[in-house]
Amino acid sequence: MESSSSPISELLYQDVFLSAPFGIYTLDSTGVITSFNPKMAELSGDKPENAVGLNALHLNSYKNVGLDKLFIEGIAGKAFETEVEYYSHLANKKTIRHYRGIPIQNRGISGQARLLLIVEDITSRKTMEKKIKDEEARLRASIESLSIGYLMTGPNNEMLLINKAAEAIFALDTAPAYPAAGAIDVSNIKEKIDLDFIQKTLGDKIDLVKQLDESRKERKNISINDIPYKILRLNLHITPIINKTTKDILGTVLLIENITEQKIMERSRDEFFSIASHELRTPLTAIRGNTSLIQTYFLDDIKNTEVINIIQDVHDASLRLINIVNDFLDMSRLEQGKLQYQKEAFDIYSLCENTIREYDVTGSRKKLLLEIIKPKLSLPVVYADRGRTREILSNLLGNGIKFTSKGGIKFSFDLLDNAVKIYVSDTGEGIPEDSQALLFRKFQQAQSNLLTRDVSHGTGLGLYISKMMAKSMGGDVALEKSEVGKGTTFSVTIPKATEAQIKEHEDKTQPTPNQEGATN
Question: By residue range, what is the domain housing residue 284?
């Protein structure tokens, strides 16, 4: 290695040359190696003293990857930078190397180095880059194959990725026609689909940018369901992208679910239930009426006890079927938002007393104790639909009687800030913990094994309808606790009446002067 004019510069160069974490070596004007640092020796698997003096332009390992030509250009004064797959016979391994060639000015000194070569082993980095690219390719392929729309934005709402399903949904107007049972050919879309375009097509139905910002700021998932969009119905789900290590927000993911077909099927199903139920109720009512007439007026004329039993069975079956039809109609009206509520202020304790009184005979038949625990403090007036509240209480009480063979069912109360909570507790068979999550679903019965159906106990719509009705009135129905073999407790929450609601009720029920005169 040639000397420098400055001793300090020479020492500094020596330090860099010997301790550098990358390979350094130099060539003279003919391509002969004039210096070879320890790191370069490690990369090549040779000793520096063995390498110095070799002509790099004649080495096959360099020729095979085209480095000899670059060396000649570098010696002539042209800097270069390249990456090569290099197989070192001495080290017996293949590596990916990054070469940087820096020409050295000719000072007219014999044997002077004319090309400085800096070599870095980038095998690990390239392997990692390949893995990342492969993962990215797999991720992109997976996202493209999704049947739901997928959209990814950066931290400033710049759009990073959108799949074909999302393009097909938002480019509805840009396609010649929307096939009812197929996707749009997005290759024909001429519009640039970005966040501004999507917001424009959604119109004032949703402020998408605001929702994306909120998701990142609050670090929470946001779901917006059943959005009308042109001829479609959409569900949107927004999730922030969070770096698990640094906890930094990297952007957001927007999933667009096309639920149009699902909504059409639900509407068709609801219409079927409604029409079928109406058509069934008329003949069932006739059967019930005729069997009641026979039992009331003609039973003494029937001498055959088997015929009497048959008539009783027909009557009981018609009642059960009418109840099922009524459940179907209630469910259909509830889900379509067509069930009417006549809200009023009323005494919830009296209603509970009347409900228990209605079931006294049924409870006595099974030798069950039906009781109501009088609260220590008087209960406030509640505000709801009295008839619908009675239905809810009757359903819970009826369930308790069905699934209780000994003991009884009791009503108790708790006073909340803005509501009254009624507990309906039984000593029945209880519901297993792993089955409790299945409650309040359609056609699901509250029995010990929720995965098997007992058709003799009804449709399994009672809890579903009760919860929907309670929520529609501002309350709720919930499972408080249940233990197999010990019993179950459900609760009904009914909102308290405000002073204005109580006064309105009093005004409606107070007789007018004309009515008072008529009664006098």
Answer: 264-335
Query: Same structural domain for residues 291 and 226?
Result: no
Q: Are 459 and 466 a contacting pair, CB within 8 Å? A: no
Q: Determine, yes or no, domain membership for 97.
A: yes
On whether residue 449 sits in a domain, the answer given is yes
The yes-or-no verdict on residue 57 having pLDDT over 50 is yes
Single residue among 258, 291, 324 that ends a domain in this structure: 258
Burial of 432 (0-12, 13-18, 19+ CB in 10 A): middle
Q: Are residues 171 and 62 in the same domain?
A: no
122, pLDDT greater than 90: yes
Asked if 506 contacts 497 with a C-beta cutoff of 8 angstroms, the reply is no
- Beta bridge partners, 24, equal 118
Provide the token pair at 420.
Answer: 């009254």
Largest CA distance in the chain: 139
- Report the number of distinct structural domains present in the chain: 4
Would you state the pLDDT for residue 383? 95
Q: How would you label 268-293 residue by residue, b for 16+ Cβ within 10 Å and e otherwise?
A: eebeebbeebeebbeebeebbeebee
**Within 10 Å of residue 460's Cβ, how many Cβ atoms?**
19
Of residues 413, 431, 419, the one with CA closest to residue 371: 413
| Confidence label for 520 from pLDDT (cuts 50, 70 and 90) | very low
- Which residue has better confidence, 421 or 297? 421
Tokens 């479609």, residue?
232
Q: What is the mean pLDDT of residues 253-278?
A: 80
Q: Which residues contact 388 (CB under 8 A, 6 or more apart)?
A: 341, 469, 473
Alpha helices in 191-304 (DSSP H): 195-202, 208-218, 260-293
Could you please report the per-residue DSSP string of 256-280?
Answer: EEE-HHHHHHHHHHHHHHHHHHHHH
439: domain CATH number is 3.30.565.10
Let me know whether 376 and 362 are in one domain: yes
**pTM for the whole thing?**
0.49
Tell me whether residue 394 is exposed, middle or buried, using C-beta atoms within 10 angstroms of its C-beta: 0 to 12, 13 to 18, 19 or more.
Answer: middle
The one-letter code for the residue type at 188 is: N
> At 113, which helix (H) or strand (E)?
strand 113-121
* CA distance linking residue 50 with residue 29, whole number of Å: 20
Instruction: With a cut of 50, say whether residue 36 has pLDDT above it.
Output: yes
Pair 43, 23: CB distance under 8 Å: yes
Between the alpha carbon of residue 161 and those of residues 93, 140, 142, 174, 193, the distances in Å are: 40, 9, 13, 20, 11
Residue after which a domain boundary falls, among 240, 258, 276: 258
DSSP notation for 409-447? EEEEEEE-SSEEEEEEEE-S----GGGGGGTTSTT---S
Of 179 and 284, more confident? 284
Rounded alpha-carbon distances, angstroms, from residue 160 to 44, 130, 155: 43, 21, 10
